[in-house]
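For the sake of transparency, this paper describes our internal protein records without simplification. Because each token names a local backbone shape, the row as a whole describes the fold. One such record is reproduced below, unchanged from the form in which we store it:
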Amino acid sequence: MKPAPIIFLVVLGAYALTAGGHLYSPDEEILYRMTRALATGPSLAIEPLGDFATRQGRDGRYYGQYGIGQPLLAVPFYWAGRAVAGLAGRSQWNRLYGPSGTAPHVVGEEPTAAAYATRWALSWFNILLGALLAVLLYGVCVETTGQREAAGAAALLYALGSLAWPHSRPFFTESCAAFFILLAWWALLRARRGRVVRWCAVAGAAAGYAALVRNDSVLAYPGLAILLLGPAAWGARAEGRPAWRAWAAFCAPALVCGVILLGMNVVLYGGPFESGYADQPEGLAFTTPVLAGLYGLLFSIGKGLFFFSPALALGFLGWRPLALAQTDRRRLMLWALAFVIAVPLVVHAKWQNWSGGWCWGPRHIFLIHPFLAIPIAAWLARPWGPPTRVILLVALIVGGAVQILGASQDFIRFYRDHFRRSPHTFFVVYDDYDRMYWESFFQLYSRPEPDPRIPLQPVALYPPAPTQDSLYFPQRSVWAAYPRMIREEGIDNFWVRLAGLGARPRASDAPETRIQP
């Protein structure tokens, strides 16, 4: 059996076994409503979830701030959910759907079996996409190293040893954007071996579609541009074609996607650069000191990439073999890889909301995770001695254990219970959504001079800092609280709930039942 199907089945099986079977956050509920709007009618307008992640359009209706790319792909999942809704009654779906943390109740919607089932169906979107992403990474590593065994090992280390695993559970957009950027990368590498115009067109379409999924996908474009100017151009010349044809083949579909994106902004909001993100409460300020953001994203105990994706640390061993394997002319590929990792990392390190809020790990830099695995394949593209095998086994065990831990909990409920549990042992300096909650407990005052006659002056508890100290102190981090949470909250797993469905008392079918998104 070829490696690609094995990788797909192994990863799909692992992700499916830890499925949550429900949506978690308000972000996912907005994406669900966008999917439903596409699946059931010609309009993109949705019922707003308060003032969260929506913006009023020129027509007075409300639209989700997220890109249309993922909801469009998820429409078949919505239809599948409608098809299986009748397999269980409303009360059974209510019990099977599971907890949903702090996400608000769905308001003004009849809690039918279809309403439950369609949300359940969308929870499987990233499980399937995550397995496909692992196979695609395998293909990229084969194109880079020519070694199938090394490529397969790198793909499995990424899929089972990084936060790709727990991020297969929610309906977030990071995995989808990473898939299309990696597809563009693979197509440009494939163009070196012939049919360069066709493969460049595939790469351009994939890169453009990634921007329809997430606007920040454009941060990967400098790395793609280096591949386009280097390997793709070489492939064109090898076929006797001018390089500009390869470039034009890439740019044409990418520009079409760009026109769609900007055109939708004009239609919905009145201007090409007006988007649903304009009204975000936290804004789009890039005020974090870059070194502080980089430390937080890479090494902080609460959000550091190498704590949440330890297997990817093996990539440090592969940069030198990757560089030595390239000729001087083709080291552009190495520069492209450096750019596709460094640019998103630095930009997100500067963003005020770099830590990504209540989620497992540094999700805003999920895009760079598969690219960090490519040097691992270069390191493994040599004979494996006993030390290499031991290192691989340890990385897989440690990385897998971390991901199983992350894939065992409802992360929204976990963070809510941990961060709001009394007594409060940490200082919150980040979450504006919780400002009113914390101010009801305490207020900080200072006196500008030591003279007691000078009145005290209130000090804002929320300076423009991007995080809270629970991300830096191990004893206050999520890791320290996990044993207690597992004991008290149990495991958030669809199959566990399914197995216990018959043993539970039947839930009421009363009209006041509400769906948790």
Q: What stands out?
A: Residues 3-125 form one domain. The first strand starts at residue 54 and ends at 56.
